[in-house]
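User: Quick sanity check before I run a bigger batch. Here is a single chain. Can you write out its predicted 3D structure?
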Amino acid sequence: MSDKKKERIDIHEYLAQFDDIPGTRVFTAQRARKGYNLNQFAMSLMKEENRERFLADEKAYLDVVGDYGFTKEERPDGSITTDQLCKGELPTADS
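Assistant: Done. Predicted structure follows.
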């Protein structure tokens, strides 16, 4: 066995080098945490009854601050259509 120790790298510094690749998003724990609420909301739409509730009254369904921990800033801004949301066609930070 070698006596050489592997040099430790800062994972955040290492991953930062990939942030400037156009169209590429490296999935990190930080991004997972940031997107958790939106993912939980999207997952709720897998159930037919939730899709029906959403389609029946978008505003009421989006008032899920307590259920999903959304802040007002994290809620969709109104430019996303119901059809886009149900199909998973959400705008990205680049669009």
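Residues 35-89 form one domain.

User: Great, the batch can go ahead then.
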